Amino acid sequence: MSEYVIEMLNISKEFPGVKANDDITLQLKKGEIHALLGENGAGKSTLMSVLFGLYQPDAGIIKKNGEVVRIDSPNDATALKIGMVHQHFMLVEVFTVLDNIILGAEQSHMGFLKKDAARKKVLDLSEKYGMRVDPDALIEDISVGMQQRVEILKMLYRDNEILILDEPTAVLTPQEIDELIAIMRSFAAEGKSILFITHKLNEIMLAADRCTVLRKGKLIGTVDIANTSKEELSRMMVGRDISFRVEKGPFKPGNVVLEVDGLSVPSRVHKKNAVSDVSFSVREGEIVCIAGIEGNGQTEFVAALTGLEKASAGSITLNGCDISHASIRARSCAGMSHIPEDRHKHGLVLDYTLAENLVLQRYWQEEFQFRGFIRRDSVRKYAKRLIEQYDVRSGQGPETIARSMSGGNQQKAIVAREIDKESKLLVAVQPTRGLDVGAIEYIHRQIVLQRDAGKAVLLVSLELDEVMNLSDRILVMYEGRVVGEFDPKQTTVEELGLYMAGAGRKGENTAGRADA
Amino acid sequence: MKDFFRRRGTISLLGSLLSILAGLLLGFVLLLVFNPSHALSGLSNMLFTGLRDMSKLGKVLYTAAPLLMTGLSVGFAFKTGLFNIGASGQYTMGSFFALVAGIQFQLPWYVAVLLGMVGGAVWGAIPGIFKAFFNVNEVITAIMFNWIGLFAVNLSLNNMPMMIASYWGAVTKERTAKLADANPAAILPKLGLTESLGNYMNIGFFVAILSAVVIWIILSKTTFGYELKACGYNRSASLYAGINDKRNIILSMTIAGALSGIGGAIYYLSGTAQFTIVKSLLTMGFNGIPVALLASSNPVATIFSALFVSYIQVGGDMLQPEFAKEIIDIIIAAIIYLSAFALLVQGVIAKVLMNRRKNCAPAAREEDDRC
Fold it and tell me: Does residue A350 contact residue A368 with C-beta atoms inside 8 Å?
């Protein structure tokens, strides 16, 4: 019997115009946690899709336990006990947890579902691995972290031995990430093998045994985590040195640009306010960061600030003008730029071309229209300039359909559009969510450049690293209120973590993460 | 690059042709099932009637005009992310307004067409307003307004004696007056085309083509079209970009209604059709849905899909009396249904070509590199 449970040997896969995988070999040992690292577009997802039977490789073979196998569809993969949790969960929102877990593997008797045995198995599994779930809760009612557990339970329910996790931590809070890593470890200890796709180096260093690095469709190498460092991994991934600290100019705050006073926003879910009585200001040349665990009112606050939702009380003043009741466009014209939290939902019209998306906030301006007719030439020229200036990479330049671009480049396009708008205030909500280190470094630099150029920046982030690195002032939001203001030079991640968890300054033991 | 486009064009044309062929085959099978002895002659009737003589071609154009308008109506709303199932009601209101203008008020044809447009626009705007301000699904409102429109028109006609044919010396009381009797000035100009293309021919088809071009320009060239499509593709993103989505929903439904309204007007102002008081919805509005789907809502392609559907319908009429009217409708439906598979077939063809290309990959890749 071979040392490896799964071997993907010399896999190549070509799409029109791109070689997504070029002669890649990946070998997975039994009972190991193997990280697959690479930037967006490096070919990680393609490689995993080949393993899961979604794509057929143009060349190369896959072996399981030393024997060559053919995986033509996800069904074949399931039969070989390969399971995958996709980055975007494949769950039926209106079904219960139990229904989702057994979906596709349900047992029935004369056409009637037999759920009792399934329920027992699910409960046993969640007991065994400490993954608490309520089998009767509806998916739409449970948190993203819970949904991920359901996805993992789905694989366990099918007795999978090889678990593929595609960017599992992208949607989790720091605490949930710790739990997930612990769960992964217990799987590995049992002899299951885990392949997890990521571009977060911290997590690899923490969780993985070995790591395979891809860059631009090519295999760069496989390394033992014990013998490597974060810096080496990032060099392998990007091909150059990456600075983890952001260089900032001196802190020279100017006039107040944004003044928020007593803002309250009603919640859509419950009767209480999602945001209550929030007041603060942002000055020129300053990055103010709102930190907090997801779901503590940040989303609603930004929606009210940018005009997507109505506030129930309070006022917003931008450059001395009261914009509390102004329309979204009026706020935009008054000098507010907004990098939205969800780039697919708000940031882009995915079926529009890149050029059309780049003028999404400006298409009605003199420069781009004449008597209601769009001036295609100036749109294209403008798009070309932004693409060049902000290094947005895409297959067909301005004519690329936004949907076909990689996440990092989609985000770069949004950043380019919002920064180029010549605004006074930049509202950036989780601008680096789900991006690789190269793109993160780039976007951080752009944000700092804006600050150094004298703009006011309001950053909303869940990543404590980002918060600590970028901000000049930190506000912690908890249950819709600002519970503390900090100077990043004088606070610690632990202290922030306490406030984020609602414990306040006089909390007893620090529950914050030591690794962040 | 040129090569690539030519190939893509070929694929989509080939796909459409193959689908139509498959549809015709199915149609033929159905003909065989229902009446084997007349199946062959029936098929040839369907296929060639439209071209047999110029007057039949005229009839194809005549039927295509309102189909094109309702197809545009449905397609335009689609592009904005709305499903305008109310084309039938808008078409009915358009017809009614145009006929009242022409018969009751003795107005000339161009005013009647404009009023027909207004009638349709009002009927389209209402579901739009409900959607924008009360978030009522436009499908529900539009279906109800189909019936409300139909019965409102029937009720009005029953109480407007001057509108009815009998007032002008004819026997029937179920139809509106012949325009030739009531007001010849309300008949659409024929531009002397009747000589070559038969009695049915008038400028209606050209009005429809003009509308298609205007809609194409609005959708692809203007900021208004940019906003409408943005709303259709992604309402949240258009909201984020400060686009007034309520205004756009109402405008989009209003324009869609206006298009259907023009369709009704040009059909009934032809001078050959008379509005009949019946208790069933006019199918012309619903036929706009397959016309729009066949054309993937592209306004220019809608011209061709309307012509195709009209051509098959005119051919289908010739199957009587060997085949029952209902069976003809089934056969036409089957043909149109399979024709809508064009996109699917295109995908298959593209895949086959791709596979072949892969086998001679190095050469093909070089070609790609050049462009």
Answer: no
